[in-house]
Write a structure and sequence with these properties.
transferase; Transferase(Phosphotransferase), domain 1; Phosphorylase Kinase, domain 1; kinase; six-stranded mixed sheet; 14 strands; serine/threonine-protein kinase; 33% helix; 2 domains; Protein_kinase_ATP_BS; alpha+beta; Prot_kinase_dom
């Protein structure tokens, strides 16, 4: 299991505090921000300072690109940053002075409130960063710069920000159905669990958002905080990646990685990154594989209620990848058997490749997108489970004999 045994209990994040209320319990996540994973590396304060300088260098690159976006393009149009600058008074009004009834969730770096912008009559989510937080300002800057340059249907839209005095707030589009974590692990009473088609749609959409960050943004970005609580769901369960405070500009030219202080969430962090501090695009691929396993199995990345290796989703799953007879046991019991058998094999094959211990064995995000787009396009009909269209495997996603064994690597 690589580095998982190296983590001490102190690296596990505290549970997110949430408050349920009649009006707002559908909304986006309680913001369970990632914490430094230092137990495995014994990062010293001096190392931390050095790494912060690298963060600033990367931010300078982002700022330079943002400035370039304001200049006229070849067709004469100006690609100005779209994020709006709000006054603190405007956001106080939008939340009725951060009224308790509008409170949506709380994490390590701030509280999230539902808000109503008076001038545009728009419902939004407003995150107020904790003024006493040690990393809030840096995350605030990175988030504004990253989302100001981003434009993709699978990334949450940053509407604006407020930087007034010691106040730092971010204003996002409101995501009606909350986070993937809430829908998978904490469903509302009398709410049906996510069906197979919806799960594949969410997985494919999240992969498309990650592909945009890796392959289409300039400069390319490593997300570094991919997890179920950071995938928000809009109308029709349309997924969008959120929270880019830990994002880093990826390696360029002859560089193979970015050396940085290890940051991430226990259970999602790639073992190679946790042990070496060398961050690559394949670090995100590992995290995506964990998310995909959660979507398929309905289990949490880390579940302290379970015993032994079963606490860690990847540790539990790896031996089962190799036993065809146990594949069925990996499907979420909440699905009640309503899934295409071949689709289950294929999705687990993708997840198995993503969570390979060796980063060079993990696929590129473009290949993951191709495979998941295929699965999402194969609508499963529980009334007609033998429909060839919903169960016919895509041969390029598998390796082995005619029985189409899932590819499990070495």
């Amino acid at each position: 299991m690589g580095c998982f045994n190296c983590y001490g209990d102190s690296s596990v994040k505290k549970p997110v505090k949430k408050r349920n209320n009649n009006n707002n319990n559908n909304q986006c996540k309680g913001d369970d921000r990632a914490q430094p994973i230092t137990d495995a590396l014994n990062v010293s304060p001096q190392n931390g300072v050095k790494d912060e300088s690298k963060v600033l260098v990367n931010q300078s690159a982002v700022e330079k690109d943002a400035d370039a976006s304001k200049r006229p393009s070849a067709d004469g149009e100006t690609n100005a940053i779209k994020a709006r600058k709000f006054t603190f008074a405007e956001l106080v009004t939008a939340t009725e002075n951060f009224k308790a009834d509008y409170f949506l969730g709380e994490g390590g770096f701030g509280k999230v409130y539902k808000g109503h912008l008076q001038d545009s009559d728009q419902i939004v989510a407003i995150k107020q960063l904790d003024r006493n937080g040690c990393q809030g300002i840096r995350e605030f800057v990175v988030e504004v710069l990253t989302l100001s340059m981003a434009d993709h249907p699978n990334l949450v839209k940053l509407i604006g920000y407020c930087a007034e005095g010691d106040q730092r707030l971010l204003v996002y589009e409101y995501m009606l159905l909350g986070s993937l974590e809430e829908n998978l692990h904490d469903p509302r009473p009398n709410k049906e669990p996510l069906d197979w088609n919806t799960r594949m749609k969410i997985a494919a959409g999240a992969a498309n958002g990650l592909e945009y960050l890796h392959d289409k943004m300039k400069p390319p970005v490593i997300y570094r905080d991919l997890k179920c609580s950071n995938i928000l769901l809009g109308e029709g369960y349309h997924p969008k990646l959120s929270d880019f405070g830990l994002a880093k500009v990826g390696p360029s030219g002859d560089q193979t990685h970015v050396s940085t202080r290890v940051m991430g969430t226990y259970g999602y962090c790639a073992p190679d990154y946790a042990m070496t501090g060398q961050l690559t695009f394949k670090s995100d691929i590992y995290s995506f594989g964990v998310v995909l396993l959660e979507i398929i199995t309905g289990r949490k990345a880390i579940d302290e209620t379970r015993e032994g290796a079963a606490k860690n989703l990847v540790a539990w799953a790896r031996p089962m990848f190799k036993d065809r007879k146990k594949i069925y046991k990996m499907a979420d019991p909440a699905l009640n058997g309503q899934y295409p058998v071949r689709g289950l094999y294929q999705s687990l094959a993708i997840a198995a490749m993503c969570v390979q211990e060796q980063p060079n064995m993990r696929p590129l995000i473009a290949d993951v997108v191709t495979a998941l787009n295929y699965l999402a396009s194969q609508t499963y009909d529980p009334q007609n489970p033998s429909n060839p269209k919903s169960t016919e495997p895509s041969a390029h996603m598998f390796k082995g004999d005619n029985k189409q064994e899932p590819f499990i690597g070495n």
